[in-house]
Sequence to fold (202 residues):
Amino acid sequence: MSVVGIIPAAGAGERLGADVPKAFAVLGGRPMVEWSLDVLREVCDRVVVAVPPDRVEPPDFVAGGATRSESVRNALAAAPEASVVIVHDAARPLVTVELVRRCLEALDGVDGVIAAVPVTDTVKEVDAGQVVSTPDRGRLWAAQTPQVFRADVLRRATGEATDDASLVEAIGGSVRVVEASPENLKITRPLDVRVAEMLLSC
Ligand code: CTP
Ligand code: MG
Fold:
């Protein structure tokens, strides 16, 4: 069994507004992507990183695409040996080896596993400023990464989505949830950098 890590790190980081692509913005004294790279390397046989085309210098750094899904596909294409794939966003630098291992271990008997947390806000579906529905919060989880998949299933799961599990779900794949921590936060806006710097320093 060959476990390959994939790190989508090719986004521009528009909402963060740094002067470099988000994954290369300095966080806790190093480029953000390096935190995730260190963690995945502990668990995987090999890690492929999808980066902006002008940053493909190091080995196993491949050019990402115009969308996150395309970046994941480009990295997957560079890892034909993979039997299991662990996808983890560079934008979640506080991931732990323990969480990645728990997700990998949960793959037994299913096609995919996602780290997720129960939502704490009440979530509204809104159309043109008008509330359409209020799904029962007790059944809602916020999806994170890592997301772990059987490689053959992930290869068949084509299309565009904000996470990989939804593409696997769309082809009928079974996806299990592993409860993660809100500390595995996603760096999206400047506030998230402040919170992450605080968590990294204690
Ligand atoms: N990503 C990617 N390729 C893309 C777009 C996003 O590899 N074409 C990656 C990002 O680098 C990030 C992850 O997917 O690690 C989650 O995306 P997001 O948080 O939206 O990051 P950005 O797209 O960089 O940010 P923004 O949407 O604010 O521009
Ligand atoms: Mg984006």
